[in-house]
C-alpha cells in the first residue's frame, strides 16, 4: 500500500463512499476533493436507484469505497457488480488504519467522509467480483459450520473408523 500523492488522481476523481450498516448506509459523494452530497440511503430498490442516479451525476465514472461488513455490504457489492462500477471493499482494520490520520470523532457520517478523503491519496486494490456459485458455496459452508453439523458428524466418524480398519 503506497501513500504517495497522485495529483492527477486528486483532480479528476469522483468518489462515492458508504458507511454500511444494517439496512442502510451513510453516503458521501466527493468530486475534485469537495463534498457534493451526503445523506442516508436505505438498502431497498428506491435507495439503490438513488445511488445509481447519484453516480450518473458524476463528471467521471465514480469509484465506490466501502468497508466489508459481511451480509450488510453484500447489497452494495451486488449493486456495483451489476452496474460494472469499480469498487473498493476494505477490511475494517485496514480502513481504520488508513483513516486514523484524519482526526474526527467516530460516527457513521465521519467514517464515510474519511473513506472518501483517504481514497484520493491511498493506493487501494479494486475488488474483483466472484461468481455467484462460489459465493453461495461459501455462504452455505459457513452456515453448515455455524449450525454445528461438523461437530455432530465428527463423533460418528470416530465411531465408524474401527469398522473400516
Write the layout of secondary structure elements.
Layout: H1 7-12, E1 14-21, E2 24-31, E3 34-42, H2 45-56, E4 63-67, H3 71-82, E5 86-90, H4 92-99, H5 108-119, H6 132-146, H7 149-164
Parallel strand pairs: 1-4, 4-5
Antiparallel strand pairs: 1-2, 2-3
Domain Transposase IS110-like N-terminal: 17-145
InterPro entries: Transp_IS110-like_N, Transpos_IS110
Protein name: Transposase
Descriptive notes:
It is built from seven helices and five strands, in the order αβββαβαβαααα. The termini are far apart. Helices cover 49% and strands 21% of the residues. It is elongated, with a radius of gyration of 20 Å. Residues 1-5 have low confidence and may be disordered. It folds into two domains: 7-129, 2-Layer Sandwich (Nucleotidyltransferase, domain 5); 130-165, no CATH class. The chain has helices at residues 7-12, 45-56, 71-82, 92-99, 108-119, 132-146, 149-164; strands spanning 14-21, 24-31, 34-42, 63-67, 86-90. Strands 3-2-1-4-5 form a five-stranded mixed β-sheet, with helices on both faces. By secondary structure, the protein is α/β, with parallel strands linked by helices. Residues 17-145 form the Transposase IS110-like N-terminal domain. This is Transposase. InterPro entries: Transp_IS110-like_N (IPR002525), Transpos_IS110 (IPR047650). One of its GO terms (biological process) is DNA transposition. GO terms for molecular function: DNA binding; transposase activity.
Amino acid at each position: 500500500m503506497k501513500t504517495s500523492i497522485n495529483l492527477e488522481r486528486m483532480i479528476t476523481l469522483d468518489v462515492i463512499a458508504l458507511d454500511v450498516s444494517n439496512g442502510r448506509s451513510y453516503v458521501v459523494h466527493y468530486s475534485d476533493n469537495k463534498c457534493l452530497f451526503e445523506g442516508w440511503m436505505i438498502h431497498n430498490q428506491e435507495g439503490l436507484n438513488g445511488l445509481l442516479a447519484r453516480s450518473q451525476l458524476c463528471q467521471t465514472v465514480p469509484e465506490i469505497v466501502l468497508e466489508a461488513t459481511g451480509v450488510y455490504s453484500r447489497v452494495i457489492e451486488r449493486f456495483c457488480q451489476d452496474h460494472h462500477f469499480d469498487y473498493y471493499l476494505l477490511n475494517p482494520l485496514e480502513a481504520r488504519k488508513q483513516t486514523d490520520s484524519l482526526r474526527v470523532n467516530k460516527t457513521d457520517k465521519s467514517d464515510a467522509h474519511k473513506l472518501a478523503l483517504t481514497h484520493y491519496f491511498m493506493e487501494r486494490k479494486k475488488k474483483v467480483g466472484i461468481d455467484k456459485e462460489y459465493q453461495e458455496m461459501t455462504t452455505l459452508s459457513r452456515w453448515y459450520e455455524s449450525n454445528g453439523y461438523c461437530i455432530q458428524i465428527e463423533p460418528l466418524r470416530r465411531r465408524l473408523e474401527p469398522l473400516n480398519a
